[in-house]
Design goal:
The chain is of the alpha+beta class. Helices cover about 45% and strands about 15% of the residues. Strand 1 and strand 2 form a beta hairpin.
């Protein structure tokens, strides 16, 4: 978690709270117990997500990683025209 303090007009300081999001894989047999434990922490908001949403997050994370590698020259990127032709 990070705190961001920025100066707003009229000489006021505003504190923005930036939260961390964590994706966990929990066995179905333990999920209800774990969610119950999390409910006891007032600073935690927890909600289950579907398998499809979880897969999307993982694929997006991999895509961002690949873009970063391509920017560093460690991975050869395909030209946009080639990607569009594949569609």
């Amino acid at each position: 978690m990070a705190l961001l303090l920025h100066y707003q007009q009229f000489g006021k300081f505003v504190l923005d709270l930036i939260t961390m999001k964590i994706l966990l894989d929990i066995k179905d047999s333990k999920a209800a117990f774990f969610m119950e434990v999390l409910k006891n922490f007032s600073f935690v908001k927890a909600k289950p997500i579907s398998e499809e949403e979880s897969l999307f997050v993982e694929e997006l994370k991999e895509a961002v990683h690949n873009v970063n590698l391509a920017k560093k020259g460690k991975l050869k990127a395909k030209p946009l025209k080639d990607l569009l032709r594949e569609l």
